[in-house]
Give the backbone structure.
Amino acid sequence: MAFLEICKYPDPVLQKKAKPVQDIDASLPKLIEDMIETMYQAPGIGLAATQVGKLIRVIVFDQNPREEGRNPSCLINPEIIEGEGEQTLEEGCLSVPEYFSEVKRKAKVTVRGLNAKGKPVEICGEGVLATVLQHEIDHLDGILFIDHISALKRALYKKRVQKKLKKPEE
Ligand code: NI
């Protein structure tokens, strides 16, 4: 197991579209395992391969990242095939440090993909899980949660990041 480095905004890799996994080779289970460990260490409830600089369509997530209740899931080539309702939840992202904002998304989604063994699976998510699935799948398309907030709020966040990048000692 290894911890992977998480790419942070404004790293351009975060805006790239990831490619579907064509075949599940020997390197994939290792990457998935490392992504799960990295997610727990961060800690976070979801991580997309894009965030560790790998442009392939793989996400991991776990709503209960605390040690006693861990139950990690992985989806390869996830696709939202159905969505309904609306909900607004506060989101953060390991690639967008120190920032949280409410984002409006579907309240319930059905996602189709492959599990770590390459078997087709369908996951139905409501509430927090619905938001996590949409947030992580967005990453695979180069979309961050700050792309869903108002232009004004986004501009303020970008300004803050620029300021920080100019003064790395702070
Ligand atoms: Ni994220």
Q: What stands out?
A: The beta strands are 46-48, 58-61, 73-84, 87-93, 96-105, 108-114, 120-126. Residues 12-166 form a domain with the Peptide Deformylase fold (CATH 3.90.45.10).
